[in-house]
Amino acid sequence: MAGARGAGRAAATGARPGKRPRGPEPEPEPEPEELSLAGAPAPGLQDGSDSGLSESEESVFSGLEDSGSDRSEDDPAESEDGVNSDEGHSGMEKTTGQQVQAGTPSPRTEAASVQGCEEYAEEDSSDEEDIRNTVGNVPLEWYDDFPHVGYDLDGRRIYKPLRTRDELDQFLDKMDNPDYWRTVQDRMTGHDVRLTDEQVALVRRLQRGQFGDGSFDPYEPAVDFFSGDLMIHPVTNRPADKRSFIPSLVEKEKVSRMVHAIKMGWIQPHRPRDRTPSFYDLWAQEDPDAVLGRHKMHVPAPKLALPGHAESYNPPPEYLPSEEERLAWQQQELGERKLNFLPRKFPSLRAVPAYGRFIQERFERCLDLYLCPRQRKMRVNVDPEDLIPKLPRPRDLQPFPTCQALVYRGHSDLVRCLSVSPDGQWLASGSDDGSVRLWEVVTARCMRTVPVGGVVRSVAWNPHPTICLVAVAVEDSVLLLNPALGDRLVVSGTDQLLSAFVPPEEPAVQPARWLEASEDERQGGLRLRICHGKPVTQVTWHGRGDYMAVVLAAAGHTQVLIHQLSRHRSQSPFRRSHGQVQRVAFHPLRPFLLVASQRSVRLYHLLRQELTKKLRPNCKWVSSLAVHPAGDNVICGSYDSKLVWFDLDLSCEPYRVLRHHKKALRAVAFHTRYPLFASGSDDGSIIVCHGMVYNDLLQNPLLVPVKVLRGHVLTRDLGVLDVAFHPTQPWVFSSGADGTVRLFT
């Protein structure tokens, strides 16, 4: 039935392609001549056949149910009635019947697909493909987050086709489908369109820079319409028009209309303005009878309070003071007394004497009215929530470390310091158990353990990527270790760099002694030993990896020493001391050295050898120091649980003081790539903050605390002793008094 009805409809409407039924058998590929580009009607609809439908009606029954339009399906009985209806509506109702059969498969549909397979092999369902997207001239990116891609001619949504194919399915389709190379996606409808041979040829001609029309010849001979010979007779000798010398009737009508408008007063002529100034009375709107009319903000004098029971000549007994209350009232000052008089009881009103302070109180009242200022306070109704600064949500500031990922166990005593290699693959930690351990970051495996025979105060990995050295501060010496991890070429190149040094014939007097390691020590990784004679508390590298600064726990101007690795030379940059030095740091970009004492941070220019700036943290004791990778901002931690942020371009005073920790801060650190900084404290927590520094100098840095990380166990009232960020990932390492190193990611 369905197949016969489809064949009859195709014959009645000029062999218009019919709806393709959904049967269990695979459909044949559509013919190239019956497909069109995006938005263009199919050729089968343009061959002059009269189907009895308008363009909008045709688009309604063009297979919108395949594109996911939410349209209720018709009843099969209505489709049967549509076959027997009159001639005027036969096209619409037949199409409706076909759509019902296409949307709901039935035995009749399957039988029709078997019977009419030859018919559908020759013609294509251009009704399905002719989905007009009437979205207009708007960007299709607006529909990225919606399930539809536009609207058809009747305003129904055109849903995107389901594309659940992964890369493997696309690859198999590319291998099996011979027309894969000529299949493109129509962005207006989301369907795949197979290009015909003519369209492929057109694309290839346009890619080669040729004309779109293949039959166009750009080199055909030109036709010379006019010869170059002088002619006797003109080409045209047309006489002049009659309107060129007769007054125009249209202009005459326009002028008559303007004259009529002027007569009626509709068009007013431009009159000259009156240049004489106009005067007005400034006080015209004032009330002349009001004495305080000009005082807009006049406040009337407050009235005196009405007398109470205590001022009565016969007060109640509870208002009468006792003898102790009377003595206490007499000993009070005048401003401390609640009442200016003592309540008394009289038998009658005639027995009340004159009030002794009457004249004085009247005089004070007159002074209040005359001298005391009164003003109306304009109270602004402000929501307290509006006074809180609008900070971004932490989820908008990701990535930052949120949870504990790994624990590095192996030390038997508290871990004072740690350092990460420049490539982020290895981690060095120093402990009070007299050893330096080298870990693999991603697996928490201890690669090497180097015993140094003393408490390790500081560990610093050389930041240069081609130098594999770790500086370790032990007692009064700085040990330079080659951990022999990573690239073998870098390890051997580091040994060659150290062995290339030739000592001078006349050694200069230096504040430190450079000693070569013995053979047994070289087997353990030791290469150089720098002896100072005083305990070393910190060692830090310059960004280029050739210089390092050392802090000594001694009084005097030799608290800070700078060593040069390539020349085995040491020098003391200062002539006098400015207090006990706590921390030093090199500026990442400029030749500056930051020296933190107990109460201040000084910024020295190394080339000019002068003091550039002195920062005042306003805290009791500075414990740690870190410099922003851009070099314009500095943070300091203190033992009185403050974290101070300095903007070097703004002021010598703190830009912001953060008091998030409850106990002393032990370490602070900046991330080299992400806008993050962290602080570790004796309360066992690491607070990670978002610190965005903008390139615009007029915009202040944005400081937002985003996460509190906990994991270390308090031991001997000590918590986190050192923190360090991973050089490339938003990870933070922490070492604690519980003998562990923890990684938070």
UniProtKB/TrEMBL annotation:
Similarity comment text for this entry = Belongs to the WD repeat BOP1/ERB1 family.
* One of the GO BP terms on file: maturation of 5.8S rRNA from tricistronic rRNA transcript (SSU-rRNA, 5.8S rRNA, LSU-rRNA)
Instruction: Pinpoint the residue ranges of every WD repeat in the record.
Output: 408-449
Q: How does it assemble?
A: Component of the PeBoW complex, composed of BOP1, PES1 and WDR12. Within the PeBoW complex BOP1 interacts directly with PES1 and WDR12. The PeBoW complex also associates with the 66S pre-ribosome.
Acidic residues bias spans: 72-84, 119-130
Q: Which domain of life is it from?
A: Eukaryota
Q: Which stretches are tagged as biased composition: Low complexity?
A: 1-16, 35-54
Disordered, as annotated region? 1-130
Q: What does this protein do?
A: Component of the PeBoW complex, which is required for maturation of 28S and 5.8S ribosomal RNAs and formation of the 60S ribosome.
On whether Disulfide bond is a keyword of this UniProt record, the answer is no
Q: Is Repeat among the key words of this record?
A: yes
Q: Which gene encodes it?
A: BOP1
Localisation per UniProt entry: Nucleus, Nucleolus; Nucleus, Nucleoplasm
- GO molecular function term, any single one: ribonucleoprotein complex binding
Q: Which residues form the BOP1 N-terminal domain?
A: 143-401
* Protein name per UniProt: Ribosome biogenesis protein BOP1
What broad class describes the main subcellular location of this protein? Answer: nucleus
